[in-house]
Amino acid sequence: MISVDHLTKRYGAFTALDDVSFEARPGRVTGFLGPNGAGKTTAMRVIAGLTPAGGGSATVLGRPYATLPNPGRHVGLLLDASAQHAGRTGREVLTLAAVLTGVDRRRVDEMVDLVGLTSKEANRRVRNYSLGMRQRLGIAHALLADPEVLVLDEPANGLDPAGIRWMRDLLRGFASRGGTVLLSSHLLNEIERVADDIVVIGNGRVVAQGTTEELLAGSGTVVRSTDDATLRRALEVAAVGVSPVATGGLLVEADPEAVGRVALRAGVVLRELRSGDERGLEEMFLDLTATSAREGVAA
Ligand SMILES: Nc1ncnc2c1ncn2[C@@H]1O[C@H](COP(=O)(O)OP(=O)(O)OP(=O)(O)O)[C@@H](O)[C@H]1O
Hints:
Elements: E1 2-11, E2 14-24, E3 28-33, H1 40-47, E4 55-60, H2 71-74, E5 75-78, H3 90-101, H4 106-114, H5 119-122, H6 131-143, E6 149-153, H7 161-176, E7 180-185, H8 188-194, E8 197-202, E9 205-211, H9 212-216, E10 221-225, H10 228-237, E11 242-244, E12 250-252, H11 256-266, E13 270-275, H12 277-288, H13 294-298
Parallel strand pairs: 3-7, 3-8, 5-6, 6-7
Antiparallel strand pairs: 1-2, 1-4, 8-9, 10-12, 10-13, 11-12
This protein binds adenosine-5'-triphosphate (ATP).
């Protein structure tokens, strides 16, 4: 369990975190979303005791991280995949961490295998690792002591599609065994697929939070047909809210079955019919952070 309670953080006159409160619960993956500079890393650093809070508090397993006995055994951190000593091999990084946290060294090989690094790669110096390999090493490091809590800042960054899927399964498995996962990401679709709960942050403030289901509810149906104009008129006659999608097709405020029935009555052939969830989070994310997004500011 991670509890963040009315957290504030200022750098001079700049407010990086403004009264941020949320929880990441055991048995669940909590996705932490926000545009560049929103405050995600700052919040995670405060949670991990690396940056002092200006006000409010952050606790992990009921206590401030710094007061946990042997915190490395309880909390796996991946905050900066490039922070590992570049001159050490991956295996040395993990062995040193095992010694420091009192973990059986045999875990090192297990973790190397688990994250998909070959033995040869594990014996290579970290300075010669690709970004994806650094992330894999960082995940191995975070999991080494078999912690109850994972705090991961952009762990999918640099992973290839197979790696992203692997990490998704790994995090789901970790949570299903009762673990707590807090992960930040810009990959909205990825968060949508992996997270049970979502916290959206913009300009240092929490702008939305809830279960993924709650946040995506009511995101409607996306439909494409051979005659969108006719379908649109038929939907409007049926008093259903409908708007065009920039990339083609229509977004309809009704479930897929209702849309399919209207299309059937109108004699329109459908080419695509799906729940709007997939684009829902992106729309929500862009809407909620519109005032803080750089592109919005520049426009
Ligand atoms: N040590 C610092 N001194 C001054 N400002 C800082 C410091 N650390 C972070 N900031 C500022 O706080 C804000 C939040 O930064 P943070 O790194 O938490 O954002 P983020 O949401 O993780 O962004 P990104 O997605 O780009 O990594 C930014 O405007 C950043 O410039």
